[in-house]
Amino acid sequence: MNTSFFNYSRILKLSGAALMAAGILSLHHSPVMAFGHDKLKESLEQLTQPPPQQAPATQPAQATPTPAPAPSQRPAPKRSITNIAGNVYQFKNNFHNSVLMVTPDGIIFVDPINNDASTWLKAEVKRRFNQTVKYVVYSHDHADHISGGEVFADTAIFVAHERAKRDIIDEKRATPVPDITFTDKLTLELGGKVVNLNYVGRNHSDNSIVISFPAERVLHAVDFIPVKSVAFRDLPDSFIDEWVDSLKTVEAMDFDILSPGHGGLGTKSDVRAFRGYFEEMRSAVTEMARAGKSADEVVAAVTMDKYKSWGGYGSFIKANVRAMYERVQANRRGN
Q: What does pTM read for this prediction?
């Protein structure tokens, strides 16, 4: 088991060589994140400036084209920061949730969401708490949750599971590559506060972690434990049997408040309820698959009526069942 502990103030005092020796830096580490930010960033910006462009040759005058009609404006995003418990707050950006813990020495922030959301949050926490973000934690590698971390590159250290780092690099996610990675557990300390990061196995991805705030008894889990909601769409990037196992692992953890990546807050009972949904669907689909039923027949028959009141039922239940059928068939050997 790989269990690690990091103190922000101690990291910042280490030299570049010491960081290398400590295993904090990696081949893909951004030097702007590791050393003196201002001077190195200025040098890098100068090196990456495009060469001056030559003045274009004079062209014959052309008729001015008729301007295209202005695109319809999107509605303004709905954003808020609300207290969950103690020093832990929820950041809501439309349908996505992040969490942050405010300490006297700065903020530990989970999932930047996107550049615009993070830009708003950065200004808001400065105004509201007079603090800056010192750690950015990625819950997993999916772009809709972790994009935009560059907004905090001037002050923050980026943390994720080691497999998330691999996918962030390979998939070219629009966010900084993690500075610190771990395999099983990692504890962050900042301003006398503690945050525990735990890998609980493969589920909605192979690199999802849960973020625990023990003093506040809050646990943040993104995408693989919906609260009173069915799973997203066709279970993309998922591992069904291990997903159920990871839910059991979370149920055994010590917390009261469940903070999900979408929707409202829940409790540990919501973890059990979602596991029940998954297990019941898997059982019904497996039985029909063994009886030789087609995907369309299974989707028509397995309606999971018990969960009609849950969020996303009307939009995603058929996709959930069809995806479950595909995974059951891929992992069973018939006669």
A: 0.79
